[in-house]
Amino acid sequence: MPERYKQPGWFTRHVFNSLVAALTGLGVSVLGSRVLAVKGRKSGEWRTTPVNVLQVGDRRYLVAPRGTTQWVRNLRVAGEAKLRLGRKTEDVRATELPDGDKPEILRAYLRRWRFEAGAFFGGVSATSSDEELRGIADGHPVFLIETSVG
Questions:
Q1: Domains in the chain, please, with CATH?
Q2: pLDDT of 14 higher than 90
Q3: Which residues lie below 8 Å from residue 72, measured CB to CB, with a gap of 6+?
Q4: What are the φ/ψ torsions at residue 22 (nearest 5 degrees)?
Q5: What per-residue confidence (pLDDT) applies to 137?
Q6: For the chain, what percent of residues have pLDDT higher than 90?
Q7: What is the C-alpha to C-alpha distance for residues 83 and 66, in angstroms, rounded to an integer?
Q8: Which helix (H) or strand (E) segment is 90 a member of?
Q9: What are the φ and ψ backbone dihedral angles of 134, each rounded to 5 degrees?
Q10: Please, is 59 exposed, middle or buried when counting C-beta atoms within 10 Å of its C-beta (0-12, 13-18, 19+)?
């Protein structure tokens, strides 16, 4: 089965993402936004994109509502990245979660960003059962992110 990817439209690519990235670059976090910088898996060049960092308890996650995006593919290969907010840059390690571990994280993500990303979850919501969330989990990569030491 091919990996799921929902390509962003013109407005998202050229207006919304640019605006969020600009604000985040100035140090204004829009509901947890950061600029993710990850080395390209083929080019080795740094690639950046705005992302939402989800805090659940004492752990942080990156969720890919659009599926297997380029940043997901690059992060899978690199295993590490940088998260930026203004002048502050944090080196992080990323560990992808198995589908069975995703329901709680997907539910929390949908609770927080339903208005922005809910349309990408095929009718599943924060009030859906764990079984329903597991049913869509393979189409939404989730990474546990931890601060790199050294």
A1: 31-147 (2.30.110.10)
A2: no
A3: 64, 141
A4: -65, -45
A5: 95
A6: 67
A7: 19
A8: strand 88-96
A9: -65, -30
A10: exposed
* SS3 label, residue 143: strand
Asked if residues 63 and 54 have their Cβ atoms less than 8 Å apart, the reply is yes
Task: List the end-to-end C-alpha distance of the chain, in Å, as a whole number.
Answer: 39
Instruction: Name every residue whose Cβ is closer than 8 Å to that of residue 79 and which is 6 or more positions away in sequence.
Output: 93, 94, 95
Report the alpha-carbon distance of residue 9 to residue 142 in Å, rounded: 22
Stated pTM of the model: 0.85
What's the rounded Cα separation, in Å, for the pair 150 and 24?
A: 25
In this prediction, residue 89 carries a pLDDT of 94
Go through 4-42 and write b for each residue having 16 or more CB atoms within 10 A of its CB, e for each that does not: bebeeeeeeeeeeeeebbebbeeeeeeeebbbbbbbeee
Q: For the segment 42-60, what is each residue's pLDDT rounded down to a tens digit?
A: 999 999 999 999 999 999 9
What local confidence, expressed as pLDDT, does residue 58 receive? 96
- What is the rounded CA–CA span in Å between residue 73 and residue 35? 16
Query: Which H helix or E strand runs over 89?
Result: strand 88-96
